[in-house]
């Protein structure tokens, strides 16, 4: 699967406004009159097999906004996804609109009928909401919705914040902190840092160091004795800490993996891994990377093999890659 850059969080109207938009779509009007596409209505519970109204029809007609949106997400998925009733062209068009804001092909009648696209061919707010499920299925990337993380746990918060701008992140975290004890909230983030993805870990370290006040800094200090993550905490705090070669290797891989997770290219990873070192010094550093035990070691080394301009460094990365695979198999 291709790696796509992380997309910024969606800023959407209130659920009630989106639900109203659902009921105004051509397809919803047809379904409410039991004149919509039969197979789509059957698969989504809007129509019974014998032709009578299904249980979901009342949701579409009079349901709470959240329930209407749940239903329309399912209707859109079934109507567009190639594994259901959709076509590859409709799915690709929707994915391109998410990624680029435009498509190589004009949106077809299905996307228009669902209310996902504007007359000019862009995504409507409803298209952003309902189409994100199709996009996630096709690309493996779940696009966050701004303002949706307030009641989520710490790992979900950090994962969701990965593509937020600084101002968006600050506002989302402010909502997450409401009703929480500051010290317990900071500690909840610190506790999960060893287990989240590299980029989510970077986000968490930044929150503790710069966004959560003294409680965040204290939670960051509590990580100093921890293996591996403690070295990252020390770097954030600017304090001295003895680290074994294996721990340094883990930190270097984690840093590069964070860039890759965001959608960074090989040139960015090469520059980050170099850290001002000459090729000879880089060769020595790369040799220790397999011993860090980081889950993303192979991916980082492959990036260096494919993208580093210096043949000696590429050779060292190849050798380290063989060693990493051997250690994983052993």
Q: Provide the residue-averaged pLDDT.
A: 93
Rg measurement, Å: 24 Å
Q: Structural class of the helices, strands and pairings? A: mainly alpha
Morphology:
elongated
E-strand count: 0
Low-confidence stretches: none
Cα-to-Cα separation, first versus last residue: 27 Å
Largest sheet features:
none
Give the helix level as a range of percent: 55-70%
Helix and strand element order:
HHHHHHHHHHHHHHHHHHH
**Number of distinct helices:** 19
Strand content: under 5%
List keywords for this structure.
single chain; 330 residues; mainly alpha; elongated
Summary?
With 330 residues, the chain is an all-alpha fold. Helix content is 63%, strand content 0%.
Plain-language structure description:
The chain is elongated. The protein is built from 19 helices and no strands. It has 330 residues and is an all-alpha fold. The mean pLDDT is 93. The two termini are 27 Å apart. α11 packs antiparallel against α12 and α15 runs antiparallel to α16.
Topology:
Blueprint: H1 15-24, H2 26-32, H3 38-43, H4 55-62, H5 65-80, H6 88-100, H7 109-113, H8 125-139, H9 154-160, H10 166-177, H11 182-192, H12 198-211, H13 213-221, H14 229-237, H15 245-262, H16 266-274, H17 279-288, H18 297-307, H19 311-329
Helix pairs in contact: 1-5, 4-5, 5-8, 6-8, 9-12, 11-12, 11-13, 12-13, 12-15, 15-16, 16-18, 17-19, 18-19
């Amino acid at each position: 699967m291709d790696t796509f850059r992380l997309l910024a969080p969606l800023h959407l109207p209130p659920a009630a406004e989106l639900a109203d938009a659902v009921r105004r779509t051509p397809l919803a009007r047809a379904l409410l009159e039991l004149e919509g596409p039969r197979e789509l209505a059957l698969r989504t519970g809007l129509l019974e097999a014998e032709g009578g109204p299904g249980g979901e029809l009342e949701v579409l007609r009079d349901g709470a906004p959240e329930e209407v949106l749940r239903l329309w997400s399912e209707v859109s998925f079934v109507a567009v996804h190639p594994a259901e009733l959709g076509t590859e062209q409709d799915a690709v068009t929707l994915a391109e609109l998410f990624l680029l804001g435009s498509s190589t092909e004009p949106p077809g009648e299905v996307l228009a009928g669902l209310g996902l696209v504007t007359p000019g061919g862009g995504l409507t707010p409803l298209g952003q909401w309902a189409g994100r499920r199709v996009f996630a299925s096709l690309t493996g990337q779940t696009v966050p919705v701004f303002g949706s993380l307030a009641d989520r746990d710490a790992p979900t918060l950090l994962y969701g914040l990965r593509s937020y701008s600084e101002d968006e992140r600050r506002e989302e975290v402010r909502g997450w902190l409401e009703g929480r004890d500051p010290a317990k909230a900071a500690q909840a983030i610190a506790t999960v840092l060893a287990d989240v993805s590299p980029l989510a870990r970077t986000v968490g370290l930044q929150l503790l160091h710069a966004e959560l006040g003294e409680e965040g800094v204290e939670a960051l200090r509590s990580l100093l004795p921890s293996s591996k993550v403690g070295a990252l905490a020390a770097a954030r705090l600017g304090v001295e800490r003895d680290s074994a070669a294996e721990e340094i290797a883990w930190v270097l891989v984690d840093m590069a993996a964070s860039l890759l997770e965001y959608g960074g290219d090989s040139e960015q990873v090469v520059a980050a891994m170099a850290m001002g070192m000459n090729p000879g010094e880089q060769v020595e550093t790369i040799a220790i990377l397999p011993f860090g035990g980081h889950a993303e070691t192979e991916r980082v080394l492959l990036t260096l093999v494919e993208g580093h301009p210096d043949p000696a460094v590429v050779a060292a990365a190849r050798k380290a890659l063989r060693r990493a695979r051997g250690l994983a198999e052993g």
